[in-house]
Amino acid sequence: MKLIWAAAPKTGGWNETYERLEGMLFGYEDWQNDWWAEQQKRRGGSFYGVPFCSAVTAAGLAFIESTGCKALLPADDIILQPFDHEDADQPERCLASDPQAIAVVRFGAAPRFITGIIDYKTGGPWRVPAGKIPSLNSKIRGSIEIVLQKL
User: Fold this and answer.
1) Does residue 125 sit in the same domain as residue 70?
2) Range of the domain at 10
3) pLDDT digits (tens, 9 = 90+) for 53-107
4) Share in percent of the chain as helix, strand, coil (round to 5)
5) How many domains does one find in the chain?
6) What pTM does this model have?
7) Are the CB atoms for 149 and 103 separated by under 8 Å?
8) Nearest residue to 106 (alpha-carbon basis) of 144, 61, 150, 64
């Protein structure tokens, strides 16, 4: 355990891999670690950051998929809002708010790292200009998840 705690700060900080190793040391089974990781992702656990969502266009979705769900398209402005895992209708409303959108994505980012991109204290939603998307992309923790897509 001390080795895991010592290694984490030297390799970019505590993340899902270290969390899973800790769970294995405590004797949790894989399915239990999977469940815990999903709960952390949905609720904005420390290594995933605060969950945000945004509606994306067809081009935006294609770009996200082409990056292995690691980056947003830096050519379009987006409207970013805090993701509420308890609000089952939020993805539908988010999709309906943009007539060009075909999907809603969710991702995590730490608010302290995205200052200058959004003013997190205002509560959102926030317009993020295309020019700031590369900076936002560098702050995304984990993968971008597609939570709703038009058929």
Assistant:
1) yes
2) 2-43
3) 999 999 999 999 999 999 999 998 999 999 888 899 999 999 999 999 999 999 9
4) 40, 25, 35
5) 2
6) 0.75
7) yes
8) 144
